[in-house]
Design brief:
Order of helices and strands: EEEHHHHH
Structural class: alpha+beta
Number of domains: 2
Distance between the termini: 65 Å
Largest sheet: 3 strands, antiparallel
Shape: flat
Radius of gyration: 21 Å
Number of strands: 3
Length: 143
């Protein structure tokens, strides 16, 4: 004898603990089987483009921090490189090297958080995540 089941809708998010970037899942399930899923992204959108229209190039730099909240300086770097390229500005070679070093440090800090949250979600709970926070803070103290 089999039991008849009906599909049900499971909403995950937008403020779910396992979503480390804010988005929402709308999952249609039949028992434990997923039948359909819709992903809704854009909860972090802050209309930066519209805000940037009324500001100078340098006033827009803080907006790029919000694009990747774990590696904010990398967003700044991408924006500054685009503005420099459009305006024909050449930065000194030393500045280029420093930018690469800082971008790599930001990448390490971001990856340490990604690894820590992954291990936490996999069931290791808090200690590994706290170790990753500690290492990330050591890197960010350099800034």
């Amino acid at each position: 004898m089999t039991t008849a089941t009906e599909p049900y809708v499971l909403n995950i998010g937008p403020q779910h603990p396992s979503t480390h970037g804010v988005f929402r899942l709308r999952v249609v399930m039949d028992g434990e089987r997923i039948q359909d899923m819709d992903m809704v992204v854009g909860y972090l959108h802050r209309s930066m483009e519209k805000l940037a229209e009324e500001r100078t190039y340098t006033q827009n730099i803080p907006f790029t921090d919000r694009a990747d909240y774990l590696a904010a300086m990398s967003g700044n770097l991408g924006y500054c490189l685009a503005v420099e390229m459009l305006s024909g500005v050449e930065v000194p070679e030393r500045a280029s090297y420093l930018r690469v070093i800082f971008a790599e440090l930001q990448r390490i800090a971001s990856h340490s958080m990604a690894n820590g949250t992954f291990v936490n979600d996999a069931g290791a709970w808090q200690p590994p995540l706290m170790y990753m926070f500690r290492e990330r803070e050591r890197i960010l103290d350099l800034f």
